[in-house]
Amino acid sequence: MGIKEQVYLYSPVFLQNLLTTLYGYQLQRDRYGPVYQQRFQELMDKRAETIDVAADQLKRLNEFLLFCQHHSPYYEALFAELNLQLPFEKLTDLKQIPPLEKETLRQHIGSVRTDLPAPIIGKTGGTTGKSIQVHYTKADMQIRMAHLDYFKATHGVEKGMRRISFTAQALVSEHQRTPVYWRMNRALNQLLFTVKKISPRTMTAYLQAIDEFDPESIDGLPSAMIELAYHAKREGIELTCRPRAIFPTAEMMTREERQLIEDVFHGPVFDQYASSEGAPIVSECRCGQKHLHYEMGIIELEADGEVLVTSFDTHGTPLIRYRVGDRMTSSGKTCSCGHLGPVIDSIDGRKRGYLIKPDGQKVFESQLSSLVKVLPNSVERVQYIQNSERDITFLYIPDWTRFSSEHEQQLYRFLKTLLGADMQVSLRAVQEIPREVSGKTLLVKQMMA
Ligand SMILES: [Zn+2]
Hints:
Blueprint: H1 3-9, H2 13-31, H3 34-46, H4 53-71, H5 73-82, H6 102-107, H7 109-112, E1 120-124, E2 132-136, H8 138-153, E3 163-167, E4 182-185, E5 190-194, H9 203-213, E6 217-220, H10 222-235, E7 245-248, H11 255-265, E8 272-273, E9 282-284, E10 290-292, E11 297-301, E12 306-311, E13 319-329, E14 343-344, E15 346-348, E16 354-356, E17 362-364, H12 365-369, E18 379-388, E19 391-398, H13 405-419, E20 424-429, E21 444-446
Parallel strand pairs: 3-5, 3-6, 6-7, 18-21, 19-20
Antiparallel strand pairs: 1-2, 4-5, 8-9, 9-10, 10-14, 11-12, 12-13, 13-15, 16-17, 18-19
The protein binds zinc ion.
Organism: Exiguobacterium undae
InterPro entries: ANL_N_sf, CapK_Type1_Caps_Biosynth
Protein name: CoF synthetase
């Protein structure tokens, strides 16, 4: 923990609120500067125009590749070796550049890095256990913020509206016992809730604070929203807030969990995919379709569904055809909402991984999360832990008002069918699923990688 965090955590609550606001103003300058303003305006203005998406992407791609050639030693050498002729004449020319594997990036991270000041650090890691630090410039960050705010604006949410965010930041001292687990950032009119203090003992206080603040939008880690929503249902707590939209980030959720959040918090959920590794943003429109923000980059789908991302707004650690580790499908259909970005039908493996069967076959999250459909409402949350090749621990939080021993047998049968007879599966009913250091709750904990 840095000195700043220590000072913060040992300050009284009113001072913590002040520090949160001051930090908010600093972030505001970094994130909402001139580059942000310009891109946000561009996106808003463009809504009425007809755009040739491929031509627009090609132009941005060429600018980005030229930038990489001039500022990144790795790409300068690679392009020379490939005898690449820039600018490209068509988007498919991009295939002349080989995919960038995580391992390659890790080994060459120093020479991929450009000569630009890029003080913002993002971490990659995910399910593989490999951790790579990537750098972003302040301008890169402002472009991301502009696209996120544009996404929110299309759902009627503007900057400055009352906003609640669930964050994994500490915010609250370990020693604090009074039930004030939130801090106000007046710079953004944002009430921050730390997910680290959410427990059966504190959840009612969280829900009351949400209702009192009466948010116009809610965002952040969905696992927190889900836990609170279950608690509200269990305790019969009826919220009066009516947010215009709810924007979960960073974790995948099932259809049922999404429905639950909408029911309890009384607002529509719109999902987004914004990998911390600098993949272009994919966000959901009012028709429920997921669109690529094509101004931010290119997503190529390999035959097996794995994606390669080229991200135009990675000027610190440029990513070209980077195998980010996620899978998507796209049927190339269009949408009537007016967003011109290609429609992505599904996104899989969002940082939460898979189980590996002894024969090497992977069982992905979408299959694993379908389990709860077998037992509607009698299981609140689950976690799969793969301890070794043939050993899986399955944790679940039963809703004791509905759960019976018969359900446990059903669970066991389902898991055996899904994972095969070779796999040892032990089931354990628990009160809560432990959170990771990051504050997230994982569906799959892969200990084998
Ligand atoms: Zn759409």
